[in-house]
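Title: Comparing notes on inverse folding

I've been comparing how different people in this forum approach sequence design from structure. To keep things fair, I'm posting one structure and asking everyone to reply with a full sequence. Here's the target:
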């Protein structure tokens, strides 16, 4: 029987939002520690990440460490010429930010600061649910799947999650782009 993706999303998002501020703080520190010591991160010069929303793990402690290492960081921004698309724009300590239509902060639109997909070596992706085969359930808009569709080289895809977001098995739809690895506060899991 196919899974009810909407029901799964509701349940998992509720669990994620129910984590206490202390649990969130510990998760955030543990993720920063794991990721800053991970060879895939050390080797990547240009990294995409996200600003936490809806109980997602907060990457700000990691972001500060990566800035100290002079990494190029990019965040998703809504494409002003296509509401179904995201693009990735440079994010530096002095980048001016605005709230997008989801109330999430993003770099103020500056076309010259948009990077091509081929320039991004590693992408830390938010998710609602994952399994150990690298299947990913997102918020349901398909932004990441659309961004990553097609033939040109893809960054190394790393899902970023709390342990409670793990499912035994998640259906993969034809358009779903699977993860190469998943990181939680407890572990780094290479899928392929
Ligand atoms: N490459 C694509 N081209 C066109 N439509 C797509 C593509 N990828 C996904 N979609 C559409 O987006 C919708 C949502 O996809 P899906 O349920 O996989 O979202 P998600 O992976 O949970 O979200 P997100 O990627 O934003 O985190 C689907 O109905 C699908 O048809
Ligand atoms: Mg998907």
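Reply #1:
Here's my take.
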């Amino acid at each position: 029987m196919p899974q009810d993706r909407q029901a799964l999303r509701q349940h998992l998002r509720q669990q994620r939002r129910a984590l206490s501020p202390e649990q969130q703080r510990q998760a955030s520190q543990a993720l920063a520690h794991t990721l800053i010591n991970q060879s895939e991160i050390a080797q990547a010069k240009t990294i995409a990440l996200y600003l936490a929303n809806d109980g997602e793990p907060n990457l700000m402690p990691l972001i500060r460490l990566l800035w100290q290492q002079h990494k190029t960081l990019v965040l998703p921004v809504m494409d002003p010429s296509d509401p179904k698309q995201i693009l990735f724009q440079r994010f530096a300590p002095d980048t001016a930010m605005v709230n997008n239509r989801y109330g999430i902060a993003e770099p103020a639109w500056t076309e010259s600061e948009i990077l091509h997909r081929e320039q991004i070596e590693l992408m830390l992706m938010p998710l609602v649910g994952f399994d150990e085969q690298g299947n990913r359930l997102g918020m349901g808009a398909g932004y990441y799947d659309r961004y990553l569709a097609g033939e040109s080289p893809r960054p190394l895809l790393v899902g970023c999650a709390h342990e409670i977001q793990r499912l035994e098995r998640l259906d993969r739809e034809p358009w779903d782009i699977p993860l190469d690895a998943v990181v939680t506060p407890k572990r780094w899991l290479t899928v392929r």
